């Protein structure tokens, strides 16, 4: 069996800590048994490892999130990257074609797809291990896992089983219902409908047949070449809802969708994370503060208060998911990379056609920012702490706290940390967007050999 762990999404409902790069699965807010904090990605990976199937897992993600994944996981999990986000149907199709074309997975190989943000018990992953045998035994095309609802929800999809035809651990499926109104959800529970938790089991042969019927390439390189033309569809809409040979496997254990701040707060072991003081008369209020400035909360109850580089949220817990309707697609102010992270602390309005952005950049020890140059802006770096090296036009220079480095327009450069390195970066020019960047293909070591 191959496991495909879907990691994507923009996490709008968990603004301001999540954005289009740092989605909700990367937020280290969940408590561990040893009083540490972990992200959803780390939790699910740990659970997969506990049942012995992490080694057969591939993470399917966008190119923007690759660095975050590698930084958070201690084990080396293979990553399949989609060039652009086209929905779960396109992503799963690309991953399956990769497994067959690039890793020689056979047509009868079973694939199980699950979302990275499933908050559930270890028993759920033991059930995942049974999916290949259930597919073989049932002779079904598709196997789903359906969670027995604990309450009516209008935020989740439902799978309606044919309860008159129960087999050994599974039911045939009659139809799907996507996020019904509350009264309809109550009715569905009386009919033994199950929450759709986004788990799919199938064979590679089945997915190749689906692609063939849709007139799409089945080989990885060919599908990758036309990926930008694929429609943006969910796997449910494109495949699952039309298949008549599908089954659902009920799961009775704990499973939660923690895609809102209210749901997240229910899993936090402390009502306060970060610098903050909350008055005694502020009941059932949770605070998460990623800023260095302290927060003081007085007389506010049943609320969620979250502060981060992208902004500050103050909301009633029952209504905090409404933030997704208010935010815009601005450039994230906090971004994590394979080499470290940066935080935008100021953006200036244009003056005489010149713009500026000021960042605080942190580079991890023995990591480096790749060689690049800028066409429309200069940069000034002021080292705050740590030590490292910079190469500017093949000239190597050792740097330490207090040093100032000026990088003119069009000059290739890179920086490497010896110890943990922090510097202030001021970008100044007619274009200070991320698009004003040209990467240089050679590595730090190659640059040293060429110029030093």
What is the secondary structure topology, with strand pairs?
Elements: E1 2-6, E2 30-31, E3 37-38, H1 40-50, E4 57-62, H2 66-72, E5 78-82, H3 88-102, E6 110-115, E7 119-120, H4 122-138, E8 142-147, E9 158-161, E10 171-177, H5 182-190, E11 194-203, H6 204-213, H7 220-225, H8 235-238, E12 246-251, E13 255-256, H9 261-265, E14 272-273, E15 276-278, E16 286-289, E17 295-297, E18 303-308, E19 311-316, E20 334-337, E21 340-347, E22 355-363, E23 368-373, E24 377-385, E25 387-392, E26 395-400, E27 404-407, E28 413-417, E29 421-429, E30 438-439, H10 444-451
Parallel strand pairs: 1-4, 1-6, 4-5, 8-12, 14-16, 15-17, 16-18
Antiparallel strand pairs: 2-3, 6-11, 7-13, 8-11, 9-10, 9-11, 10-12, 18-19, 20-21, 21-22, 22-29, 23-28, 23-30, 24-27, 24-29, 25-26, 25-28
Helix pairs in contact: 3-6
Describe this structure in words.
The chain is an alpha+beta fold and 452 residues long. It folds into 3 domains: 2-256, Spore Coat Polysaccharide Biosynthesis Protein SpsA, Chain A (Alpha-Beta Complex); 261-321, no CATH class; 339-451, Jelly Rolls (Sandwich). It is 20% helix and 34% strand. The chain is built from 10 helices and 30 strands. It starts with a strand and ends with a helix. The mean pLDDT is 91.
The CATH class of the largest domain, by name, is: Alpha Beta
Strand fraction: 25-35%
Shape: globular
Give Rg in angstroms.
Answer: 25 Å
CATH superfamily of the largest domain: Spore Coat Polysaccharide Biosynthesis Protein SpsA, Chain A
Side by side, the strands of the main sheet go 20-21-22-29-24-27
Sheet with most strands? 6 strands, antiparallel
The CATH topology label of the largest domain is Spore Coat Polysaccharide Biosynthesis Protein SpsA, Chain A
State the end-to-end CA separation.
49 Å
Count of helix runs: 10
Helix vs. strand class: alpha+beta
Mean pLDDT score? 91
Q: What is the total number of structural domains?
A: 3
Helix content: 10-25%
- Overall number of strands: 30
Report the CATH architecture of the largest domain.
Alpha-Beta Complex
* Low confidence ranges: none
């Amino acid at each position: 069996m191959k496991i495909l762990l879907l990691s994507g999404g923009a996490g709008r409902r968990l603004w301001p800590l999540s954005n289009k790069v740092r989605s909700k699965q990367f937020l280290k807010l969940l408590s561990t048994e040893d009083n540490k904090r972990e992200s959803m990605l780390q939790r699910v990976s740990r659970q997969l490892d506990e049942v012995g199937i992490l080694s057969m897992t591939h993470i399917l993600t966008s190119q923007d999130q690759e660095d975050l994944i590698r930084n958070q996981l201690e084990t080396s999990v293979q990553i399949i990257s989609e060039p652009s986000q086209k929905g779960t149907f396109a992503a799963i199709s690309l991953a399956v074609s990769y497994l067959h074309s690039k890793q020689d997975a056979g047509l009868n190989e079973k694939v199980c797809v699950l979302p990275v943000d499933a908050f559930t018990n270890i028993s759920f992953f033991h059930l995942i291990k049974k999916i290949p045998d259930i597919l073989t035994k049932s002779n079904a095309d598709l196997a789903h896992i359906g969670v027995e609802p604990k309450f009516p929800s209008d935020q989740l999809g439902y799978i309606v089983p044919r309860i008159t035809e129960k087999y050994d651990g599974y039911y045939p499926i009659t139809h799907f219902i996507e996020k019904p109104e509350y009264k309809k959800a109550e009715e569905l529970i009386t009919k033994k409908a199950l929450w759709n938790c986004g788990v799919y089991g199938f064979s590679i042969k089945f997915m190749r047949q689906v692609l063939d019927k849709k007139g799409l390439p089945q080989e990885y390189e060919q599908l990758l070449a036309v990926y930008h033309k694929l429609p943006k569809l969910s796997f449910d809409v494109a495949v699952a809802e039309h298949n008549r040979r599908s089954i659902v496997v009920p799961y009775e254990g704990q499973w939660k969708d923690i895609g809102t701040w209210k749901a997240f707060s229910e899993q936090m072991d402390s009502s306060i994370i970060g610098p903050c003081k909350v008055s005694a008369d502020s009941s059932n209020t949770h605070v998460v503060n990623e800023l260095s400035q302290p927060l003081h909360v007085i007389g506010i109850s049943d609320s969620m208060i979250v502060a981060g580089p992208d902004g500050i949220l103050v909301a009633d817990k029952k209504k905090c998911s409404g933030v997704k309707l208010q935010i815009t697609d601005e450039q994230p102010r906090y971004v994590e990379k394979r080499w470290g992270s940066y935080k935008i602390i100021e953006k200036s309005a244009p003056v005489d056609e010149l713009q500026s952005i000021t960042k605080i950049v942190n580079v991890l020890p023995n990591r480096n920012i790749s060689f690049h140059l800028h066409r429309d802006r200069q940069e000034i770096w002021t080292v705050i702490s740590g030590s490292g090296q910079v190469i500017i036009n093949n000239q190597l220079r050792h740097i330490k706290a207090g040093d100032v480095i000026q990088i003119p327009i069009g000059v290739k450069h890179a920086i490497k940390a010896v110890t943990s390195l922090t510097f202030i970066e001021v970008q100044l020019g007619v274009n200070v967007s991320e698009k004003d960047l040209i990467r240089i293909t050679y590595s730090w070591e190659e640059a040293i050999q060429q110029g030093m």
